Amino acid sequence: MNLPPFKLERYFAKYEFNTEYLLCSSDCEAMSIADLLALESGAAEKFQNTWLGYTESQGHPNLRREIANIYETIQPEEILVHTGAEEAIYLFMHAVLKKNDHIIVHTPHYQSLSEVAISIGCETCAWPAREENGWALDVNELKNLIQLNTKAIILNTPHNPTGYLMSHADFDSVNQFAQENNLLLFCDEVYRESEYNPAMRLPAACDMGEHAVSLGVTSKTYGLAGLRIGWIATKNKNIYHDMVSLKDYTTICNSAPSEFLAEVALRNRQKLVARNLGIIKSNLEVVDELFTNHPDLFKWVRPLAGSMGFPKLLTSALQGKGNIEDFCDNLVRQAGVLLLPGTMYDDSENHFRIGLGRKNFPQAVERLESFLSK
Ligand SMILES: Cc1ncc(COP(=O)(O)O)c(C=O)c1O
Fold first, then answer.
1. pTM above the 0.85 mark?
2. Which numbered atom of ligand 1 lies nearest the CA of 228?
3. What is the pLDDT of residue 1?
4. Binding site membership of 188 for ligand 1 (Cβ less than 6 Å)
């Protein structure tokens, strides 16, 4: 196994804890343990009494019950809890893929969604999101991308970094295509429940049949990244079994305090979603104004869901000098504002990621505006 550096994570490692304004975070505003426990009477006392022994490898039954409530048809025994979504991606790929298998990957993408497969010796091909179509995927392209050795489609909706949300009709077609061609569908749904229009929320892939695995986490929509609690939900018993078996080599079981806190969080997830969507929607107004004021500098495809978007810095903004990396570098050094260059996703067209989930977003945009005016 040979895993190259995770570009986006290394970029964050350099700036995340020494920069005043993080204007490109993918997660929503977090909260303290005290504030989380205050959501439910009696929770603080129960937390104090949490037993610090090993926990059940699949995840605490109470937590799995709360996670199963997110889905329509999933039972607690079809949930496998992990340390973050990242561990689940790693174990899914190792459980289902072998050398020379092929996967089709929604692109651009969070790096591990292809990189773990490549490290196993798999071939990957990009299923491209098209900016000119609002970052949509074209389902008709799947028939040209499939090969004899294709094992899985890797989809991420709502999407990091574009905020694209697939239509119901396209989602049905992808599921049908996967079923008809005997492919697995790994659906990264870590931004699910953050749709700006709830009527556009898609069914979870795991509710569509045994071909699918849904990925969830407390980090993004619910704003609790520090818990490091992620999960997969699937009716596919073989995949579930193989992932359980591999987990003995990564984390064995999850953190008991985090499992308890995640259980409280998910029981109260509607409150967390309302709080975080409130922050995102008010930040969207600020960012709309920024981009309306500067049509000469930016091209903006407004997201449909989630806590980020992927605007493009136009060449006029660069005044013939450098690229998006230079722009972001100058911005963070001179104004203390962090944007994420699209090159972290292998994008070569001067896009950058802007994060909409943080409370200090308006102040960060003010700093960006004054940087632009210089
Ligand atoms: C699409 C996507 N999947 C998975 C992850 C990993 O989530 P976590 O860091 O909570 O493990 C992220 C994190 O940014 C993500 O954006």
1. yes
2. 10
3. 67
4. yes
